Amino acid sequence: VVGESIMISTIFRGAVGLPRTMAIVHHTCARFAHIRANKVRPGMLLRINGKLMHVRKAQPVKPGKGGAYMQVELRDVAAGLKSVGSFRAAEKVEQVDLDHKRSMQFLYREGNTMHLMDSESYDQVELPTSALGDGQERFLQEGMPITVETFQGDPVDIKLPREAEFIVEDAQMDTAGTGSPTRIVTLEGGTELRVPAHVKAGETIIIKIDDGSYLGKR
């Protein structure tokens, strides 16, 4: 059920190559709909007490006693702060539906700032690495395709590819605390990961971006 529909301006702030008083503006229609809390999923945008909250994680919980509920991790879009909370499974929450996405390409990282380029217009923008999922900034690669969703100029959700290939620059044996031999390897860019012992320096491996798990070799 759609609660309301309003027209907003979606703006990428800090666009490279434009005067500071200018921005890249896109008009889109934001719709607000009420859904049951058990339908909440990661990546959704909710309006809670007048604030826009991006759902980072959502886990249904069925306790032995009491009713089921949805455990969520949220990020305040305006303040950038994370919080953890819960909703009763049957509770109604307000979802914001933008349907506005931009395909972009990662250029380089400067401190806590990502420099991206729009794949269609070639406009360049700067976004904070804090908008990524936990630990995902370590897997950024030059030229990596990225999908960006915004609300009134603020990045709401930044999606990296499901997986990516990395060259192993260094590998050392490490079996501590594991049931089978593993190695701690250093990937191009300096990221360290634990992988199976058969992985060697110079090989190209495939990593799952959201949790850093090893998927195989190329």
Automatic annotation (TrEMBL):
Gene Ontology annotations of biological process type: peptide biosynthetic process
Keyword Plastid: yes
Annotated GO MF terms: translation elongation factor activity
Keywords: Chloroplast, Plastid
An example Gene Ontology CC term for this record: chloroplast
Location within or outside the cell: Plastid, Chloroplast
Domain of life: Eukaryota
Family designation: Belongs to the elongation factor P family.
Protein name: Elongation factor P
Species: Fibrocapsa japonica
